[in-house]
Amino acid sequence: QVQLVESGGGLAQTGGSLRLSCAASGFTFSTYAMSWARQVPGKGLEWVSGIFNDGINTYYAKSVEGRFTISRDNAKNTLYLQMNNLKPEDTGLYLCAKEVASRGPLQRYDHWGQGTQVTVSS
Fold first, then answer.
1. In sequence order, what are the beta bridge partners of 121?
2. pLDDT tens across 20-29, in order?
3. Please, what's the largest Cα pairwise distance for the chain?
4. Cα 13 to the center of its chain, rounded Å
5. Angstrom distance (rounded) from CA 85 to CA 76
6. CA-CA distances (angstroms) from residue 80 to 36, 41, 43, 44, 67?
7. DSSP-derived secondary structure for 10-54
8. CA 58, 61, 63 angle in degrees (round to 5)?
9. Cα angle at 34 between 7 and 45, to 5 degrees?
């Protein structure tokens, strides 16, 4: 079955960096687009970034554009999110999501990981 396991979260200071990873199994990773989203209590789910199956086309929410970089290694079945210049409003549970197609439109998910917590102190 599809499994998505996130790691790399933790506590960071404002202006700091973290790198999230998502190990995927149970499906042909290179076939599907992938996304990162974050869940903040009281604010719901926010899509953060997505990447097409070939790793070339990447997309970002305006709130993170220029600070976050999504990437993937199809040989290792792993999705990444490099987060730089972190802000307190980046605090949340970051989830890796499998998209239903290889390319866009994004934000059509059919599987989620359990998430990894990111906390940014001011």
1. 13
2. 999 999 999 9
3. 40
4. 20
5. 27
6. 9, 23, 24, 22, 14
7. EEEETT--EEEEEEEESS-GGGS-EEEEEEETTTEEEEEEEE-TT
8. 135
9. 75
Pairwise CA distance, residues 55 & 40, whole Å: 27
Q: Whole-angstrom Cα distance, residue 20 to residue 80?
A: 6
Could you tell me the pLDDT band of residue 9, with boundaries at 50, 70 and 90?
A: very high
The amino acid occupying position 77 is N
Which of 100, 36, 46, 47 lies closest to 72, judged by CA? Answer: 36
Measured distance CA(71)–CA(78) in Å, rounded: 9
End-to-end C-alpha distance for the chain, whole angstroms: 40
Q: The tokens of 102 are what?
A: 């290889």
Model pLDDT, residue 42? 86
Best CA proximity match to 82, nearest among 12, 24, 32: 12
* Residue 71 DSSP one-character state: E
Bond prior to 105 in cis (omega within 30° of 0): yes
